[in-house]
Sequence to fold (121 residues):
Amino acid sequence: MKCIVLDAMGVIFKAADDVAELLVPFVKESGGELDEAKINDAYLSASLGHISADDFWLQVGLDSSMEDSYLSRYELVAGLDEFLDLASDKEIPIWCLSNDVGRWSKKLRESFNLDIYLNGT
Fold:
């Protein structure tokens, strides 16, 4: 069986390193944790499922109500829609590989309407 497996960061979304490019600046600008190592550690724990997304926000000094504001910083790679349409037209299954925080991935897939193309989560 043929399929296409896409990485989320740098392939589906413009940010190649979403933690360094989007998350760390967002946390700092929003009045949260200033120590990048602590933000990275909290992210790693959340992405591995060791802590919840809500606990991540607490660990970086922000309220979880900030989450959607953070996720609004993501942008799709130019031309992705056309690529996904073409693969879909050819009935090639498309999968996304990501080590993101589960709730964030779900929200991003929904907000960009990607679930209609992706076979797996």
Observations:
- The chain is about 45% helix and 5% strand.
- Residues 42 and 59 are 7 Å apart (CA to CA).
- The mean pLDDT is 94.
- The two ends are 18 Å apart (CA to CA).
